[in-house]
Structures are given as C-alpha cells and as structure tokens.
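Reading a protein record of the kind used here takes little practice once its layout is understood. The reader may check this reading against the record printed directly beneath this paragraph.
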Amino acid sequence: MTAFFALTTSLLWGLADFGGGLLTRRTPALTVVVVSQTIATAVLGVIVVATGGWSEAGPRLWFAFAAGLVGPVAMISFYKALALGPMGVVSPLATLSVAVPVSVGLFLGERPGLLQVAGIAVAVTGVVLAGGPQLRGAAVQRRTILLTLVAALGFGAVFVLISEASTTLTGLFLALFVQRLTNVAAGGAALYVSVRRGAAALPEGGLAWSALPALGFVGLADVAANGTYSVAAHHGPVTVAAVLASLYPVVTALAARGFLSERLRAVQAAGAGLALLGTLLLATG
C-alpha cells in the first residue's frame, strides 16, 4: 500500500510540474500557482461539504494551515531559482527535500532494513541524476543556490506537515481544503504585492479561457498528490513513502520526452534506471 500510494504521488506531482512548467512559459508563475490552486480549492470545498468533512475539524488542522503557508514560499522560491539559474543545477538540488521527511522518520524511531537503506540510496541517486545535473558551465549565483535550498526545505516540510494533518479520509479532505485555502490566500497576497510593484499578473492578451482546463489539472493533480502521500505515510514508514514520492522528477523528464520530444541525456537515462531499481528494492524490502 505504501509503495502504491507513494508512486502514485510521484506520478501526480511529476505531471503537475510538467503542466505547470508549460503554463509558465506564457503566464507568470505566481498567477499559475494562484489560479490552479483556486480551482483545486473550489473542488475540495464541494467534496468537504458532500462528505461532511467539517465534522473532522480539530487541532490537527494547524498542520494543514502551516503546510499552506510553507507551500507557496517553497514554490515561488523554486520558480525564481529556475528563472535565475540552469535547470540542470536547480532541479537535482531541489530533490534534497526528501532529506526532511526521512530525517523526521529516523528521529521518530523508524529503522528501515538493510535492503530498504540500499533502495533509498539508489533511488535518491537516481532522482538527482534524472534531473540532469549540470557539471560544466558558468558558476551558479549564490542566490540561486539559496533559493533552491529554501524550496527544498519547504517542499520537505510540506511532506511532513500534510502527513500529520489528518488520520481519516474525510479529515484528509478537510485538511487539504484548509491547506489549499491558505495557499490561495498567501499566493494571492504575494501576487497583489507583485502587481503593486509593477509586475504583470497576466500574459499579453489576457488569460485565455482555453488555459483553464490545464490550470485545473495542475491544481487538482497537485492536491491529489498531497492526499496520496498522506495515505502512503500512514500505511508504512515515512522514510520509504518520502523517497518513493520524490521520484517525480523522473516522471517530469519522461513526460517532456514523450510530449515535447526532448531527448534524455545519458546521465538522465541512467538516473531513471537507478530510480526504478531503488523503487524495486524499497518495494520488496
């Protein structure tokens, strides 16, 4: 169960990142975040009302609120890092986010077996290589590195917080709703400040109605990934769930290969293979 839901998480996050990356080629990243999360919040609100999720309100929702504050900071830092530095450096470095939930799991007493430890090492190495680490070229700005590390820490914190936000399925729907509502409020405030400073909120010609389905997919895939990760973390070791869920860069790279005909470099292909091997070790361990 843990492996299935964690791998589903990586699939959903990978596709959401791919879709978000395509959308930000034409629309400001902050607008993509706010609009996609608004759509996801509206859908979650309907689900919460339909399932009676309000009855699950309790102190755990503070974890969801915290995740909602941390998430936009991490996402905006990640997008800014991608704008300032080469993706071949930023993308692999951002996968350090997995260190946060793994460290928390170990601190709380989880002790993976030898085969799982090997799987974790192989999978993480594969994810970093699948991002296509850039080994040559101009020096990367310190600000780019700092922003990427902030993003990695934030993404890892969201992993931990959302897994603590609920214990039941209806409670999970409510927690995800609170998280997304907070996301929209924080992101909307950041967008307002950005526009006040002179930045554009919409692309030239405005936001096309035809883009809404894609924005909706990005938002819903992202929120669904948070849900499946929470389920994975509750059904097995967080150390295993976090590593398997962090395979999303492999999915993004493969989506770019399939839909945009981007060629995988040898290091990326090798990384994808190692990630698959690590997944098998974790699943069988």
Notes: The two ends are 13 Å apart (CA to CA).
